[in-house]
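@channel anyone free to eyeball this complex?
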Amino acid sequence: MSDFKVRTLAEVSAAGEEVDILFWVGCAGSFDERAQKITKAVAKLLHQAGLKFAILGTEEACTGDPAKRAGNEFLFQMLAMQNIATLDAYQVKKIVTACPHCFNTLKNEYSQLGGNYEVLHHTTLINQLLNEGKLSIQGGAFKGQRITYHDSCYLGRANGIYEAPREVIQKLDAALVEMKRSKANGLCCGAGGAQMFKEAEKGERDVNIERADDMLEAQAGVVAAACPFCMTMLRDGVKHHNKEQEIQVLDIAELVANAMEL
Amino acid sequence: MLHYLQQGLFLIVSGVAIYFFAKNLGKIRRNILLGKDIDRSDNPRERWMTMLKVAFGQTKMTVRPIPAFFHFIVYIGFVLINIEVLEILVDGIFGTHRAFAFLGPVYNLAIGFFEILAFLVLIACIVFLSRRFVVKLKRFSGVEMKGFPTRDAATILVVEIVLMGALLKMNACDQILQARGAEHFIQAGSFPISQYLVPFFSSWSDQSLIIMERVYWWFHILGIFAFMNYLPFSKHFHIIMAFPNTYYSNLKAKGELNNMASVTQEVKLMLDPSAQTPEGYEPPTSFGVKDVTDLSWKNLMDAYSCTECGRCTSNCPQNQTGKLLSPRKIMMDTRDRLEEVGRNIDANGSFVDDGKNLHSYISEEELWACNTCNACVETCPVNINPMEIIVEMRRFKVMEQSSAPASINSMFSNLENNQAPWQFSPMDRANWTQDI
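replying in thread with the prediction:
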């Protein structure tokens, strides 16, 4: 148990206080058991860095990303406008999120509906905090370990963020190894575009199994992810090959939190 | 006398060739403008830079170095050898021979360089043919490549080989005539490649050589006119469209999907029934893309810019794992349907319902497989966006036909009821904070 409590914006503003940044948790981060661990790691890091942050709690709704990608623009805009109304009511300026899909939608698509915020993905923020010395890694739990990084499509190709997560891994003193398909050429985990919520079409194999081959080939003990949906898909891929003992899939936030023994 | 006949004939032939080419360009322009209007007039500076880098500089080709190298040769060959075509045009119109020869050493150097280039182009085309038909690279197969598309690719390569051959053989005859001091054949040019073809022709009489030189000359220029007129019907049209298509590239983040303004007004009314509608507001009549005319003109320009190289398809995670989805097919279907709509307009004056639309070409199985991962968009050497067409067609499926896979529909109803794609109570959203 940590020595701090994650507060909601409602609680913070009732206390007449302000925050530096809103932590947008996202649906996976809120409800998915595995992703909750990532959420907690992010919260611990924000707290450790001395940032005043809050969440929306029950006032947060899905950004609408899966609805938009699946072609339901009505539903997307309903959710988006509801969220924008909430965010604007609290005069939110700056948002961090651990989900690349939330990140992309909040950053690129809410502005089209009048919601303008500075939106950071947690890998960018963590990298900044490490650069500024607000977080520092000692102990070297991952020193010398082979770690490979799986690019999330919605961070990488969609928004050009390739380096921040890699820089964080290098700060762990770990040996960053690349999979044969990485960065702009990275292979999708298979979840995006609302695929997470449906069965795959018929074919030879699932996309995450294909990606798992790349992961095995990289011969890394840790696969770093930066997206809760990638997390699910990659873990299933590892399970498919019965390599759960050899390969750990961890989020960038978890890597840093573990290294800092938080 | 023969000269005047040739000049006259040349003028007629070029006039006809240019007329039909312009006419077909006009049709393509009209077809592209059947698309919905979007604004791509912003940031001219960045647009020019994108075109310079991506189309002129071919920066996105370099990811695959082998085809990039040979393609660059063919591209440079095409651009530079066309300077020689300019001379051919001048010679044809004025009955001159090697009209630019007055440039002296520069001319000799240029002709020599073009010969080397022509030879390299010939080699590159042979390499390309063997990649397709001997090595049989997977990228060049696929359901959408059966029939015309494969014949189209082969035709272009064979024609280029034949044209380059004619150019070299013409020069071989020419240099023998020059050496023999034949009338009209002034001393000009250097022939680093065609000199090796001289032995094949050296025993011929002056008269036969003059005829052969003319035959190859005519063959070369007629070949170029024919090629030019084949372009608007071929994937090879990319040599023209690559430039405007990269100029009009999407400059925003690839992850950003367009906002449907028609929906925004409806949603505002739904959330607040007392809200005022703007003056002259008319509720939208349809949502998403049913047919090609619902796409943007840029989507349609994309379709005409596609040279069916298949980088999109070979990078698509779904295609790599054996699914039906192929981004290249999306582009080819779009072009095929647009051409069909164009022919319909040509025949009837305006479009007459033919009982078909873009969904007759692209199936639900293809549409629902897309990961929206942007791999196809990222890899396209001329900045085509197949993903946008897929999402627009999903919009039609969902908002017009309510026809989505059952699991997608339950995701939608979870979003409506619980504000999350899964069936969790919204009241439990912050439960994770309890045991941090």
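from a first look: The two ends of chain B are 98 Å apart (CA to CA).
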